[in-house]
Amino acid sequence: MTDSAEPAASSATGPSPRDPLHALDARLVSRMQQLLAETLAGHRAALTAIAPESATLVDALTEFLDGGKLLRPRFCFWAGTATLGRTPSETELDALARHGAAIELVQAAALLHDDVIDHSPTRRGRPAVHVAAARRHAEQELSGDSEDFGVAVAIVLGDLALSWAEELVGAGSAEAATDQGAARRARGEFDRLRTEVMSGQFLDILHQAGGFESPADPEAAALAVIRWKTVPYSVLRPLRMGAALMGADDDQLELLSQWAIEVGTAFQLRDDLLSVIGDAEATGKPIGGDITEGKRTVLLARTSAAADDAQRALLAQTIGDPDAPVADVTAVRELMVSSGAVASVAQEVRDRAGRAQQLLEAAETFGTLGRSGLDLLADSATELESLRL
Q1: 3-class SS of residue 122
Q2: pTM for the full model?
Q3: How far apart are CA 125 and CA 161, in angstroms?
Q4: What is the rounded average pLDDT of the residues 253-258?
Q5: What is the C-alpha to C-alpha distance for residues 248 and 246, in angstroms, rounded to an integer?
């Protein structure tokens, strides 16, 4: 769930102010940022009353959220807009923005913990929270081990973000929903989002340790991790939350689920490629990080399947070794390309993106504006032009 370079919904040059899709997207972002700022300000005041030191947790989370592309909240919003078949009212936009802000806090919690699990040194081009906290501990010459302190801070902050996400969903969004039944269905999607991403995280940890044995082979195991770790909280549940909140029926929710599996899987496969052939400056994470972290990706499974004995020996001695020589990491990256694994995974991204586009084009019960927003998000989440293929 590293999300090395999440896509923005608008172009780098900026949308035309007359473009209704981008104008509506800008309204969503503005409202969501306002909600998050108000929420964090309230929590900062409450924590300051406990102890001034506690308020630094809010400061750390505020900094951590800066630079996020709000991909998941946008999926929630545009699915809701597609369900409505029209531009959301202010009340509807507020409800969707509130749920989107909650999703963003779940995302923050997941990444805070993920960086600890993966021993990631950076996030969005800045030191990861556990690394920054460890440095402050050392600089202030506090007692105990600095690394242990940093890990503890990141865990606590992640737990806080989850708690505050829960509050956001519960605070007034039910009244803003189309009806109470719709609010309950959206809440059910939010509950399943949190359960599924944590289950997927466990499967990822287990898979890296060599204990995920129920799938038929390494590639099936890697795809299962994507299905339950990335797809639910990145695409599927945000989509279904927004749609359910705006009154989607079962057929609409099922179509969105099918679309989400294609887009979400392609998104993660693309993210796996970024670790090998991406741009470290653009992703904010070191290239080759998945190799030294020991990520059991589809890309790795296909590389191993195509390798000879000597090449498998190289993989065995390098994958999962944080101290692996740069030359070995480079050799593994080159093997992933020369074996055809990179090209194969890239083609699967294209194929899944194509199937998703066909599903959306056939979704006549959804409004044109909402479908356009979803289509733009899918294009951004699965584009390969920026990669060195």
Answers
A1: strand
A2: 0.90
A3: 21
A4: 97
A5: 6
